[in-house]
What we know:
The protein is α+β, with helices and mostly antiparallel strands. Helix content is about 25%, strand content about 30%.
Amino acid sequence: MPPKETRDSERAVIASLTLPGHERSAAHIGRFVRDTLGADHPAVDDVNTCVNEAFTNGVAHTASGRGGKITVTLAAAPGVLLAEVTDDGANGDRPHLRRPGVESGRGMHLINALTGGWGLHADGDRTTIWMRFPSAWSGARGFCRPPGP
């Protein structure tokens, strides 16, 4: 589910990919993000990093990592690129920012630093982390073009 300030009518799904909840599946995310957005998209590296972090968290901390699946969705809204990672739920445990200096758990700090905002939506047994990337160029190749003459 997108952030509250983005209405569904303003949101257009660009592409979606469902993968087994296994560490090996993460290798497919970089290609999916680059192929969908285009290697020249200004947010491609940040989107790739954040989606990989959210995917890895889903594998490590949710039922997806125990034989489930994780879905990655890229969507566009006016001036915003949205990335969503939906897993099989964490039995009430929600992603959160950990204390500085802790050896693990830095992924959410990275997501917090690289996005224009993020949040969670739980729907039954599924949990979605959404991430917002402000961009005048908020779509994939062919969906919208970079600003210019």
